[in-house]
Amino acid sequence: LHARYVLQLLCETRRVLKEMPNITYLSTSYSKDITVCGDLHGNLDDLLLIFYKNGLPSEQNRYVFNGDFVDRGKNSMEILIILFAFLLIYPNDLHLNRGNHEDYVMNLRYGFTKEVSKKYKV
């Protein structure tokens, strides 16, 4: 995805996240399922497999991603782009919790900063 569109996506996602509370309370009922995922660590194949097996996020197919989206794998940016796009479409049905790898120092140490610099030189 061109850097211009990534920047637009990031700005809009930031705006939406700033409006959300720091703590989100979720409840499930017998009629609604929720899929809880964690530790993608830049492995796009894992995210695609989750969506293949459980379906794409929607009002009827809710998700919680428990952080560690980035670092270690080669496709952290692609994972963020996909998750942020779904967050903008379904802000009440897709929830993103921050993990320890969503930290500046961890990003420097485990590769996300290098990935971003390599893919988006500007």
UniProtKB/TrEMBL annotation:
Keywords: Hydrolase, Manganese, Metal-binding. Residues 97-102 form the Serine/threonine specific protein phosphatases domain. SUPFAM superfamilies: Metallo-dependent phosphatases (SSF56300). Gene3D superfamilies: 3.60.21.10. It catalyses: O-phospho-L-threonyl-[protein] + H2O = L-threonyl-[protein] + phosphate. One of its GO terms (molecular function) is metal ion binding. It holds the Pfam family Metallophos. InterPro entries: Calcineurin-like_PHP, Metallo-depent_PP-like, PPP_phosphatase, Ser/Thr-sp_prot-phosphatase. Its EC number is 3.1.3.16. It comes from the Eukaryota. It is an enzyme of class 3 (hydrolase). The keyword Manganese applies. Its cofactor is Mn(2+). Belongs to the PPP phosphatase family. PANTHER family: SERINE/THREONINE-PROTEIN PHOSPHATASE 5-RELATED, SERINE_THREONINE-PROTEIN PHOSPHATASE WITH EF-HANDS 1. This is Serine/threonine-protein phosphatase. It comes from Upupa epops.
